[in-house]
Specification:
The complex is a heterodimer of chains A (about 230) and B (about 180). Helices cover about 15% and strands about 55% of the residues of chain A. With about 230 residues, chain A is of the alpha+beta class. Chain A has one domain. In chain A, a hairpin with a 2-residue loop joins β8 and β9. By secondary structure, chain B is mainly beta. Chain B folds into two domains: about 30 residues; about 130 residues. In chain B, about 25% of the residues are buried. The chains are: A alpha+beta (about 230), B mainly beta (about 180). Chains A and B meet through α2, β6, β8, β9 and β10 of A and α1, β7 and β8 of B.
């Protein structure tokens, strides 16, 4: 699965470079090598995932809040970051424990379709992230149900650990009104140190998803607000 | 600052709607506990064999006609399982509550003198998944038997897990003529 992630990473990073090289070659045929001037201004966007509150209401025992921010660099590249916090309670008949975590992920987004004018801030994008989450797990109580020999119960000691993962994301964002943006992201996430969860994997890690899977898919729907200012000429 | 072009708005609006539908479909499927798709109990698999002749060095499977296995779960309590069809391969479990346990083995339901097989082992608590919870895996350290119809017992794989495809753990040599 990590191989797939790295392949996509390579594809994602080389395609824009290839496209840029092609564009440069094409332009050099007709004009001399003039550095491309950035026509768009600055933009900083702060958003909240509106799926999280809905999910908190629908899913018993799980809570989470997620935020996202990005800043336009140049050439349709955005510096992007997400963060949040949450908790989950497992209350099955044979397994009970509580986990809580915060998380932070950072990376970049690349708009896939070139903008038609400098004020067009929507579009399809693809991006990469590295994420980390410090996780606190309470003591866990378990019962092994055995109809022949009888049930056995016990307790697992509490534990703190940090999960690291890589994300590939793609999505779409549109401007609903002046500065008000909406859009969704789908995310493929790949846990890089999942072996530490072998003794008891957290059911849910806010920002990642199911802790007992090394590869998960997730979806966010962000409502965001953009602050913009012009570049110095 | 301008809004997207009308054509783009329709296109992106469709994408937005698809995203909302996908969000609710996705979360709608993840509310319940996932089903447990792996065995929750570690299985000890046994193969009954016998020598074809007294001087033979190779063994052949011994199909026990109507074997009965009894788990001695307490000093005066035995829980029996009757196998109605002939077989040479049987599966039992070990006690998760102790480091030893015993089973009675009737090689035939008409044979009134059972053998007692006693197991000693180390237990290892094993997390399967949030869907399945915990179980115990075992490492066999010794197996002893009486010799009414069983000649000897050989541990062929000391590791007792929930892996159904693992090598059988015991080879039980039955006395010729049973």
């Amino acid at each position: 699965m990590l191989r797939l992630a790295f392949s996509l990473l390579l594809l994602c990073t080389t395609l824009p470079a290839f496209a840029q090289a092609t564009a440069d070659t094409a332009s050099s045929d007709t004009t001399s090598a003039i550095p491309k001037k950035e026509i768009a201004g600055h933009q900083f966007v702060l958003g909240i995932d509106i799926i999280s509150p809905v999910r908190n209401m629908l899913v018993t025992g799980q809570n989470g809040y997620q935020f996202a921010a990005d800043y336009y660099l140049h050439n349709e590249f955005y510096l992007a970051a997400e963060g949040g916090w949450g908790s989950s309670d497992v209350t099955y008949d044979d397994l009970k424990y509580h986990t809580s975590n915060a998380y932070f992920s950072a990376g970049f987004n690349k708009i896939l379709l070139p903008r038609e004018d400098s004020t067009d801030w929507g579009g399809l994008f693809m991006g990469l992230r590295l994420g980390a989450a410090p996780i606190q797990r309470s003591a866990a109580t378990y019962t092994i149900i055995d109809s022949l020999w009888g049930n056995t119960s016990g307790t697992i000691a509490p534990k703190n650990f940090t999960g690291y993962w890589m994300e590939i994301t793609a999505g779409v964002r549109v401007e609903l009104y002046k500065g008000l943006l909406a859009g969704w992201n789908i995310r493929g996430k790949f846990m890089m140190n999942g072996k530490q969860f072998n003794d008891l994997a957290p059911l849910y890690i806010t920002g990642y998803g199911r802790g007992d899977k090394n590869a998960v898919f997730d979806i966010n729907f962000y409502l965001s607000y953009a602050v913009r200012w012009k570049r110095k000429r | 600052m301008t809004n997207p072009k009308p054509g783009m708005q329709v296109s992106f609006g469709s994408w937005l709607l698809a995203g909302v539908v996908a969000c609710f479909a996705f979360w709608g499927c993840t509310q319940e506990r996932q089903p447990c798709l792996t065995p929750k109990t570690a299985s000890l698999n046994m193969e009954f064999v016998h020598y074809a002749t007294d001087s033979a060095t190779t063994t052949i499977d011994t199909a026990l006609p109507m074997a009965i296995f009894g788990a001695i779960t307490a000093p005066d309590t035995v829980k029996y399982t009757l196998y109605k069809s002939p077989s040479a391969n049987f599966t039992i479990s070990l006690s998760p509550d102790a480091d030893s346990c015993s089973w009675l083995v009737f090689t035939d339901s008409f044979y009134v003198r059972p053998d007692t097989i006693s197991f000693k082992y180390q237990r290892k608590l094993q997390f399967l998944s949030n869907a399945c919870g915990f179980t115990y895996f075992y490492s066999l350290s010794s197996v002893q038997t009486t010799h009414k119809s069983i000649d000897s017992v050989l541990i062929t794989n000391p590791s007792v897990t929930n892996n159904a495809n693992a090598t059988k753990q015991l080879k039980i040599y039955v006395k010729t003529g049973i």
